[in-house]
Amino acid sequence: MPFLQGKDLEYVRGEFEKLPRRVTAVLFVGEGGSGGVFKDLMEEVGAIAPGKFSVRYGTPEEAEEKGIDLFPSFSLEADGEEYGVYFFGAPLGYEFASFLEAVRDVAEGEVELGESIRDELSGLSSPLVISVFVTPTCPYCPLAVRTAHRFAVASPKIRGEMIMASDFPELAKRYEVMAVPTVVINEVVRFEGAIPEEEFAAMVAEAATIQP
User: Fold this and answer.
1) pTM given for the model
2) Neighbours of 62 (CB within 10 A)
3) Is 85 helix (H, G, I), strand (E, B) or coil?
């Protein structure tokens, strides 16, 4: 049974048709991995508007180059340009909205942020990874995921990750994820909940000053 039907399907098609550049989801399912629901969802979405959004399977070499060791997962790129936007696990439930917003941001190649936030991000001197642990049924998680991905699009120093906690229970246990969203920045700053972008940017700046 398709994931998207009727009005939902037409909505996604309409959103894709408005993209200013073609976006590609680079899928990684691991050696011998089928991807299951992940693969079915992404291939279905990739067939909706192939001229505007497509999927392809990344190679093991690409996975290594991107530092990907969690499967299934995917990154988004526009016209071959990488923006540090990653999803680990299928973007189901509320996270499908995060996925659509990330596709739009990557297609545009820029996001609108307040001046103070841009100042915080432009001052980063070393790479940072923002990992956001989520569940499909959490209505607040997309806010944190969106912030991580928006910051990644705005700064080449940032990698923003959505991590479906239910798909990676051992990793969730490692970071003591008891509630979602849980945000981990460079493994040195951790907080729970969806917070305003200004506060989030301050957390990012704080993480940049701490040695892992």
Assistant:
1) 0.97
2) 14
3) strand
* Terminal Cα distance for the chain, rounded: 45
Output the furthest CA–CA distance in the chain (Å, rounded). Answer: 50
Which residues lie across from 137 on neighbouring strands? none
What is the CATH architecture of 6-208?
Answer: 3-Layer(aba) Sandwich (3.40)
Q: Which helix (H) or strand (E) holds 133?
A: strand 128-134
**Residue found under tokens 């001046």:** 115
- Residue 212 has a pLDDT of 67
| pLDDT tens digits for range 44-79 | 999 999 999 999 999 999 999 999 999 999 999 999
- Among all chains, which residue has been given the structure tokens 């917003």? 101
Element housing 22 (H / E)? none
| Amino acid letter for position 56 | R
